[in-house]
Specification:
Length: 218
């Protein structure tokens, strides 16, 4: 793969699938949920990555009341927060985050505070100082609200932000926010990010004299 150099003023980082590999627990929890509701687990897994749980449920069970989805989501979050078996860093994530010390970046995740704190700890990763979680937004990815809030918190224009994402919903959210997107992992490539990397070992960030960030990918 030919190296690509992208210039930005801030990085906005998804968590699950981008910094943390939580696929094992996501599969366990959602396949159990699929069985309870008589749904095809493979089809459910195509929907759930990147979204808040209640938003996934609204897609999968469109006739179910919102309050029921929210209550079900709360139970699911508790299950996920209690299950860290198999949660590990995406290769290169620790070194990547360490390289961002003092540089403008934020975590933008569909997980809530409890789940994001637990998963980052389980993967041995530090939490960025700026964090946009499920509690921070009124709309789940693919809505751009989370990324726009991350940019606002950092005081950087959306067009100057670079998003790191793995899911279709997340990549769509980044695009809708007017941002460029680095796709991370096998899931990302089919959703049209600007560039794709297998994992974070292929990413290097350097600060330029003008305060911008040079992101070397590949």
């Amino acid at each position: 793969m030919t190296a690509t150099v992208l210039t930005a003023r801030a990085l906005l980082l998804d968590m699950d699938g981008t910094l943390v590999n939580s696929d094992a627990v996501v599969e366990r929890i959602w396949r159990r949920w699929s069985e309870r509701h008589g749904l095809d687990g493979d089809e459910v897994m195509k929907v759930v990555h990147g979204r808040q749980g209640h938003a996934s449920m609204a897609v999968l069970l469109p006739d179910r009341p919102v309050q029921q989805n929210l209550a079900d989501n709360a139970r699911m979050l508790a299950e996920e927060t209690a299950d860290m078996d198999g949660v590990v860093e995406v290769p290169g994530a620790a070194a990547f985050l360490a390289s961002l010390g003092g540089l403008p970046h934020a975590l933008v995740t569909s997980a809530d505070v409890a789940l994001s704190t637990a998963r980052m700890a389980a993967a041995g990763l530090p939490l960025p100082a700026v964090r946009i979680t499920a509690e921070s937004v009124g709309a789940s990815k693919p809505d751009p609200e989370g990324f726009l809030k991350g940019a606002a918190e950092l005081g950087v224009a959306p067009a100057d932000c670079l998003v790191f994402e793995d899911s279709g919903a997340g990549i769509a959210a980044g695009r809708a926010a007017g941002m460029r997107v680095v796709g991370v992992g096998a899931r990302a490539g089919v959703h049209g990010p600007d560039v794709v990397v297998r994992d974070l070992t292929g990413v290097r960030v350097a600060a330029a004299a003008d305060g911008s960030l040079r992101v070397h990918v590949g």
